[in-house]
Amino acid sequence: MGKLRIGAGFLVIVVLAALAVYFLRPISPIADEITKYSQEWPLPNYDYANTRATTASSINSSNVKNLQEKCSGPRKWTGLSRLPIPRSTAR
């Protein structure tokens, strides 16, 4: 029996096919951390759609009028720069 000869072109095709299978495998569009903490506020704007809203809240249009302020204090930040108001110690 003769030796089976594989050409370099065939070997390149096999390697490229293996790389394509590896790199083109399905990847979940949602990170595991986002799925794990989905009942909390997992992203800066709640979700990837930037809805900034949740349906998990018990506040609705009929009970929002019953909300009360629980705490308040002096305003420590001012302006768009978000820098604290400096207190002058020199007189």
Present the secondary structure layout.
Elements: H1 8-23, H2 32-36, E1 77-78, E2 83-84
Antiparallel strand pairs: 1-2
Can you put this structure into words, describing what you see?
The chain has 91 residues and is mostly helical. It has a domain at 29-55. Helices cover 23% and strands 4% of the residues. It is built from two helices and two strands. It has helices at 8-23, 32-36; strands spanning 77-78, 83-84. Strands 1-2 form a two-stranded antiparallel ribbon. The termini are far apart. The relative contact order is 0.05.
Query: Rough shape?
Result: elongated
Strand content: under 5%
> Helical proportion?
10-25%
Mean residue pLDDT: 78
The gyration radius over C-alpha positions equals 30 Å
Ends: how far apart? Answer: 105 Å
Largest sheet: 2 strands, antiparallel
Poorly predicted regions are none
Q: How many helices?
A: 2
Count of distinct strands: 2
The structure class reads mainly alpha
In N-to-C order, the SSE pattern is HHEE
Question: What attributes characterize this protein structure?
Answer:
4% strand, elongated, mainly alpha, 23% helix, two-stranded antiparallel sheet, single chain, 91 residues
